Amino acid sequence: MLDALVLLLLFACLPGSVELLLLSLGGLLPARPAPRGTAPHPRLAVVVPAHDEASGIAACVASLQACEGSHDVVVIADNCSDDTAQLAEAAGARVLVRHDENRRGKGWALDFAFRQLLDEGYEALAVVDADSRVDPDFVRCLCERLACGADAVQARYQVLNPDGSLRTRLMSVAFMAFNVLRPRGRARWGLSAGILGNGFALSADTLRAIPYEARSVVEDLEYHLRLVRAKRRVEFADETCVFGEMPEGGSASGTQRARWEGGRLRMMRETAPSLSREVFLRGRWSLLEPLLELLLLPLSQHVMLLAVAAALPSAWRPAALAGLALVGLHVLAGLRVGGGGWRDLGALASAPLYVIWKLTLAKALARASTDSADWVRTARNDDPAT
Fold first, then answer.
1. Nearest C-alpha neighbor of 165 from the set 303, 354, 362
2. CB neighbour list of residue 347: distance below 8 Å, 6 or more residues apart
3. Is domain 44-254 classified as CATH 3.40.50.300?
4. Predicted confidence (pLDDT) per residue in 233-288, tens digit
5. Full-model pTM
6. Are 122 and 43 in contact (CB under 8 A)?
7. Any idea where the domains of the chain sit in the sequence?
8. DSSP string computed for 306-360
């Protein structure tokens, strides 16, 4: 009986374990050199979706304006109730204002902006969140890859405020694995790197062929699955980075985690069956890695299942221990390629408490995984209420 239970737990973790092994090995290998060419850079607009971002929009615009290369900064003030639009305009950005209470969320806002800007002749569009800062070479690096023929490009996405709290330090460790090691591994194996929701760019040709009609609370994952199904590939710009601010308090962090992980569970439920049919019945093996990535549980849940399997007396216990060791390798590999240090290693000692905290989000995760789940803005650290 216990053997059967342990086998069930291991089976639930198997796709994720294969994915972690594949991407950890690929991510540790030397990165492929960035392409270089002589083609002119595309006419680019950096789109900043902003919903009530008055506290930080000016700093984000200033960071983007300081980038090397020719580009325009366009803020989409989406259903704002504050002076985000006025502050963005005063900072030097062009502002598009959108009010639609029935169509709320980042996906709707981006689709609105993309359609208008494509009609104006832009050849590529990038996305940077309103609470973010970018490296000075961010625009140039994206444009170089797009000029060499990339369908889409994703930059490194790391944490702006790792020293803000223990939570942000742990988030920084997680981002090194999720947003650096994994896309780096995909790129090393010649796979689509993925879209991480911040710091990515799409060519006009890609957007015309596959409009940004992603409406879920994880619109980046939803859209990337549409890209790979259409045989389009996202390149990974490992040489430049976007830095996003993470919530330092438990309430805001809980809202963010529930949206991210609940949305992924919904995508898994809705998309994994059709992806499986395409892979195993139609032989579309290029979709195998996106399927494995979709079936990889959030790392805390993955670890909990393996820990239970390892704690039970069973002939399969060594397999569970091997799965836990693989998670450890994955996290250390993320620190290695993401530039982590001793403080990040020290923060890992509190990971069990973080896992316990995640258990308290079960109801919020369930709500966020439903078809009717609304997009909810994460409170910023410098919001008055926060």
1. 354
2. 166, 169, 170, 173
3. no
4. 999 999 999 999 998 766 666 666 666 677 788 888 889 999 999 999 999 999 99
5. 0.90
6. yes
7. 2-27+287-368, 44-254
8. HHHHHHS--TTHHHHHHHHHHHHHHHHHHHHHHT--HHHHHHGGGHHHHHHHHHT
